[in-house]
Amino acid sequence: MPRQPYLIKEGGSWMFYQPEITVSYYQELLHAMDIMHTQLLKAERIFRKIILACGNCNIDAMLSLAVVLNRTGRQIEGNALVHKAHLVCMEALPPYFNPDQDDIYWCILENRPLLRSFHAVITEYIKEKQYERALDKINYLLKINKNDDTGVAALLPVCCMYLGRYAEYLEWYQQLSPLQRTLETTFFSFLALYKLDLPEQAKARFLEARKAYPNMAAELLKSNHQFPADEFKIHNTRIPAGSRQEAFVCWLASRELWQREKELKKFLQAIPKETVDLP
Question: pLDDT category, 276, cuts 50, 70, 90?
């Protein structure tokens, strides 16, 4: 059985190493990753072959196979594989690794499987509604990968909302630059103020959010939510920013949070319809 992956500091940088046997299957791995979205079963066979040969040391093969399994309705096996891959990565961290001081850089190619394993397991924790565990992993990953190359910060808002950590979320939101703030993070900041029983601040934040994203504001006031398929005559490969479709998708992703606020619609309806310029 090949030896396990390990993390070691070289020349001032931490590097994640996988055993030499993984190199032998690198081209097959890349080919399977290229076709995994169109030829699921063929990609699955290749990933299983690589895992059989490499054991638990090829993290990308394990994570990619998990994606294929989840997409073909085998979520239990897929989710288990994600957790297994991440456990292997955690076991690779030496006891003297200090997440408060040490960085794992995405620009070092060898580090990417480890960082991907964090993002994958966070996603699974959120699916499993284990928001506390997800948030702990998010905060850990943001410590060791401060540039957030995996985009894990985008998963933080929903965890804070479900955990009721509204003040913590607002503190995090205030630290974002205007360019980093999104439709979701802005409206969640409104929801956090509303949940903290700060009606005037919540009203001001909603006006700010409505001015930037009027379609999302309108979506929250609807009684019947449907995907606006008639919005565009031509199919878009990506949902356009600012569109009614974007607003619906954002609402759908967090509808449980919005729908459980029984008095929220009444609060929104009492806010004047005209846009107010905020200081």
Answer: very low
| Residue 62 near residue 4 (C-beta atoms within 8 A) | no
Residues 247-254 have a mean pLDDT of 93
Spell out the alpha helix ranges (H) of 55-198: 59-71, 75-92, 112-127, 131-144, 156-163, 166-174, 183-195
Judge whether 203 and 271 are in contact, CB under 8 Å. Answer: yes
Which of 252, 272, 124 lies closest to 184, judged by CA?
A: 252
What's CA 170's distance to the chain center, in Å? 19
User: Residue 54 contacts by C-beta under 8 Å, 6 or more apart in sequence?
Assistant: 2, 19, 21, 22, 25, 61
One-letter amino acid at 273 equals K
Report the alpha-carbon distance of residue 124 to residue 63 in Å, rounded: 12
C-beta separation of 241 from 211 below 8 A: no
**Closest C-alpha among 264, 260, 262 to residue 162:** 260
